[in-house]
Amino acid sequence: MRIARFAAGDEVGFGLVETDTDSGDEYIARLNGHPLLGDIKLTGERAKLTDVRLLSPVLPTKVVCIGKNYADHVAEMQGITGESTEEPVVFLKPSTSVAGPTDPIFHPAVSERVDFEGELAIVISRPCREVPRERAADVIFGYTVANDVTARDLQQKDKQWTRAKGFDSFCPIGPWITTGLSIDEAQDLAVTTTVDGEVRQSGRTSQFIHDIPGMISYVTSFMTLLPGDVLLTGTPAGVGPLRVGQEVAVTVERLGTISNRVVARD
From CA 237, how far away is CA 202, in angstroms rounded? Predict the structure, then answer.
């Protein structure tokens, strides 16, 4: 299933994204309630996907990120973020950094270099702590697409990553949550980032240094994850700067595309 959060007029809700087998048009079928808090039930209401605005598919209490999870990205970041480590590198993005799949990315005046980082993201299904590797699938609701936008100059200047990663709009996610993928399937997906249509990143989740069960097990060894929390899994090589006016798009195979324009922060 593809589960989206959307706005139609003054109303916000969740719906299933469906494709008409005859016309190929995409529709959204409204759900009753929150898909993470109970059974998924259809209301019978339906609208064309082009007639609604897609929002971030969840509003997480926190976004937990895994850094340095592709060897080629570690190599390109030598001198900025250091070498890879035996254990996963974990950092947080605040809930206020989350933006929708087509929302603008605001370029803060205080930064001279804002970078894109396309990633696969995991949406957590239930409260969980100390999850063993073999139970990781039990706490995954589904997968979505994310861009871990980073003020690279501030990351290097501050020597820690909170400010560089935490600006409002620095975590676009969407366009929906895809359920039903096994962990093995999720660990062999293409991740592609384009800027104004030009490919800048092209990798596969099969290149992970730390796999999905390992990431979930490690993070929950010291932190409780809650329903709707989002886990970013790292970015492949090719990260680079964005200028005001550019359009950055991240596509994860089988999951969809988010596309965000960079605008100046007033």
Answer: 8
Band (pLDDT 50/70/90 cuts) for residue 14 is very high
Q: Is 181 exposed, middle or buried (0-12, 13-18, 19+ CB in 10 A)?
A: middle
Same domain as 108, residue 43: no
CB 23 within 8 A of CB 8: no
Report pLDDT digits (tens) over 193-219. Answer: 999 999 999 999 999 999 999 999 999
Q: Domain span at residue 46? A: 2-54
Same domain, 122 and 235: yes
Dihedral sign from CA coordinates of 198, 205, 61, 158: negative
Q: pLDDT at position 206, please?
A: 97
By the 8 A CB rule, do 103 and 7 touch?
A: no
Task: Please tell me the total number of residues recorded for the chain in this structure.
Answer: 266
